[in-house]
TrEMBL record:
The keyword ATP-binding applies. Keywords: ATP-binding, Nucleotide-binding. PANTHER family: C4-DICARBOXYLATE TRANSPORT TRANSCRIPTIONAL REGULATORY PROTEIN DCTD (PTHR32071:SF57), TRANSCRIPTIONAL REGULATORY PROTEIN (PTHR32071). This is Sigma 54-interacting transcriptional regulator. Gene3D superfamilies: 1.10.8.60, P-loop containing nucleotide triphosphate hydrolases, PAS domain, Winged helix-like DNA-binding domain superfamily/Winged helix DNA-binding domain. It comes from Clostridium ganghwense. Residues 210-261 form the PAS domain. The keyword Ion transport does not apply. CDD domains: AAA, PAS. SUPFAM superfamilies: P-loop containing nucleoside triphosphate hydrolases, PYP-like sensor domain (PAS domain). Residues 339-564 form the Sigma-54 factor interaction domain.
Length: 684
């Protein structure tokens, strides 16, 4: 009687391809039924001997249609040797796109290529409806050429991914068709595909599936492999197992596994004849990830095999893949050597920060705007044990609450309207084993603070719309220019979160309290700008006596301004501020202070653009020269600030409505008012 096999995939084209493969390999011994989710072909219960599902991602959707007593196989896939050869011919170091039906399928294909040994090419996932198509010349696709962007010059179609040897063996075993594995057409198929790390070429010519499986597993795996018979006697033990367990082969072979390695759950598997997956045990104080499977042939139990791996190794592999696929740009660029200054104040802060880097506790960096809070955060990360992992930074004030929540925690597909297909990895997951830098933490909404507190306490996160808890190991560095302790007393910041973050407090010294560093900083900024000029004595005195409300950031702006003057000698009249006319932000009256508060709520995440325009107007006030929106637009372009002339016009109208500027008709330009000068100090 013919056996019935159901094939269920996401795409009907892939389902057709797999059905054809199985029919060719098993011929008249099976009847294959095809189902796919893209055309809703599943109408009722799937009544077959086994169901072959293409990926874990659709298992939950498909399971409800499968009979309880039906055997289920999740496919393992590989590439044909012909398709794999095309990839090996791509020059090393090249960046290419992998095009597939979805982000998940593209990532799976990339993971498969890495596992097959190609690690000298950078692959970028591309899929229909992607937000931004990368500008790349080469695209690799597994039979999905119709989704390749039109601008790609070279398309390499490697053909559909094919069922690997382990999947074919599992299907044959579950259908009692083991004898077919010796047939010429199946052996020919095995020779035509790339074996995925198990050295399965030895399968050819072997007559017993038990012998075949263990021979496959013992071929130089990174994982440790331990095989026992029905009595629990060890008769397979590879070199990786020696390294992980710490016992030599001659000490283990022929001995009862329970006497030597009692932590391995062989007894449960042999007794129940059921697999144990992803179990964590400890051996010699080291966390080990274990999978134990029964070995059967013709429904008879012959023994069990364990695949073991150091948990830390698995973590490193995950990090490596995350970095390659999703972590572009999430790195810390600066170290303590990049923090310029020789003053006692800055050296003291650097010494404290270096000691903090050795800890895994949360750090709260407090400092005025422009003191270099992220610079210190990056330096701490690069001096810590987490330096080989991601440094992920997010500005809590720059994003609305709902968007910040989805960025931090990620979301599942369909979690909300507009959610990306396939869901999204959250920044906590991306920063796993690394550092998450939360800038301007004081601006975070109270509701979101509660969720953040739970993640820090429990070291686990749940995506929006998800039901799965994900363990994360993240070091938190938070930064603020506000007094969180006072905000907590006022009920504007959670006190419990404040104490969680403030384990290691780091207070950055404002520039006005380390004036001996000003000239050093000016020289470094000039070097970065590749500009050269000399400050007169009176100009230096002006810099020393300035209040530096914007600290190093303000200093950089002024040095850039002087650099663009293209003058070799800078005198007092050239500097863009007058210390004697410095405005004290504390002299705002109650009405002005309230106006500034309403104004800040109005501009929200555009504050940097408004500050830029106000600062340019302040410079024109000091120089007694009116400035118009075209001039401000040109300055913005020179400084790399993205502000169109139309945007500047809207900003100036806003500022005039709040009494901060006066817009003259004709060529009179725009002038900042006294209230505007005071408001700038308050906002900045």
């Amino acid at each position: 009687m013919k056996k019935k096999v159901a094939v269920v995939t996401l795409s009907s084209a892939v389902a057709t391809f797999y059905c054809k493969q199985l029919q060719e390999l098993f011929g008249e011994h099976i009847i294959v039924q095809k189902y796919s989710l893209d055309n809703n072909s599943i109408k009722g219960t799937i009544d077959t001997d086994i169901v072959v599902i293409s990926t874990d991602a659709i298992y939950g959707t498909v399971k409800k249609y499968i009979k309880d007593d039906c055997e289920i196989i999740i496919t393992s896939i590989t590439l044909s040797k012909k398709g794999f050869k095309k990839i090996t011919e791509i020059p090393k170091g090249k960046k290419v796109m992998i095009v597939n039906l979805s982000l998940e399928m593209a990532v799976e294909t990339i993971s498969l290529i890495y596992q097959l040994g190609i690690n000298d090419i950078e692959f970028i996932p591309v899929y229909p409806r992607i937000d931004e198509i990368p500008d790349l010349d080469i695209a690799i696709t597994p039979g999905e050429s119709r989704y390749v962007p039109k601008n790609v010059k070279q398309v390499i179609d490697i053909g559909h991914r094919v069922l690997d040897i382990n999947t074919i063996i599992d299907i044959a075993a579950k259908l009692d068709l083991d004898d077919l594995l010796k047939k010429h057409k199946i052996q020919r198929y095995f020779k035509s595909i790339v074996t995925n790390r198990y050295g399965v070429e030895k399968l050819m010519g072997l007559t017993n599936r038990l012998e075949s499986q263990f021979s496959i597993l013992l071929q130089g795996l990174e994982e440790g492999i331990i095989g026992v018979d029905l009595e629990g006697i060890v008769y397979f033990y590879n070199e990786s197992a020696e390294s992980i367990i710490g016992l030599k082969k001659e000490e283990v072979l022929g001995k009862h596994v329970k006497e030597l390695i009692p932590q391995l759950p062989f007894e449960q598997v042999l007794y129940k004849s059921k697999s144990i997956k992803q179990k964590l045990i400890k051996i010699n104080g080291c966390a080990i990830s274990v999978n134990v499977d029964p070995i059967t042939t013709d429904k008879n139990l012959y023994g069990a095999a364990a695949i073991i791996k150091r948990f830390s190794d698995a973590e490193k592999e995950q990090h490596k893949l995350r970095s390659q696929l999703l972590g572009k740009g999430h790195i810390a660029k600066y170290s303590f050597e990049d923090i310029i200054g020789e003053s006692e104040a800055i050296n003291k802060v650097k010494d404290i920060a270096k000691r903090m880097a050795k800890s895994d506790s949360s750090i709260l960096i407090r400092g005025e705007t422009g003191t270099g809070k992220e610079l210190f955060a990056q330096a701490i990360h690069n001096s810590s044990n987490r330096k080989d992992y991601q440094f992920v930074a997010v500005n809590c004030a720059a994003l609305p609450e709902s968007l910040l929540e989805s960025e931090l925690f990620g979301y599942e597909e369909g979690a909300f309207t507009g959610a990306r297909k396939g869901g999204k990895l959250g920044l906590f997951e991306l920063a796993h084993m690394g550092t998450l830098f939360l800038d301007e933490i004081g601006e975070m909404d109270l509701g979101l603070q509660a969720r953040l507190l739970r993640v820090i306490q429990e070291r686990e996160v749940m995506r929006i719309g998800g039901d799965r808890v994900i363990n994360v190991d993240v070091r938190i560095i938070a930064a603020t220019n506000r007094n969180l302790k006072e905000l907590a007393k006022e009920g504007k910041f959670r006190q419990d979160l404040y104490f969680r973050l403030n384990v290691l407090p780091l207070n950055l010294t404002p520039l006005r309290e380390r004036k001996e560093d000003i000239l050093l900083l000016i020289e470094k900024i000039k070097e970065d700008l590749n500009k050269e000029f000399i400050l007169s004595q009176s100009a230096q005195e002006a810099f020393f006596n300035h209040t530096w409300e914007g600290n190093v950031r303000e200093l950089r702006n002024y040095v850039e301004y002087l650099a663009h003057l293209e003058k070799k000698y800078i005198d007092l009249g050239d500097i863009p501020f007058e210390p004697s006319k410095a405005i004290d932000s504390n002299n705002l009256n109650d009405m002005e202070r309230n106006t500034v508060k309403i104004f800040k709520q109005h501009i929200q995440n555009k504050v940097d653009k408004y500050i830029f325009v106000l600062m340019e107007l302040e410079k024109s006030y000091v120089n007694r020269e009116p400035v118009g929106r075209r001039s401000i637009a040109k300055i913005a372009q020179l400084q790399g600030v993205f502000l169109s002339e139309q945007e500047i016009r809207r900003i100036l109208i806003d500022l005039e409505n709040y009494g901060m500027v006066e817009i003259s008709k004709g060529r009179g330009g725009t002038k900042i008012t006294q209230f505007g000068l005071k408001a700038l100090k308050e906002i900045n």
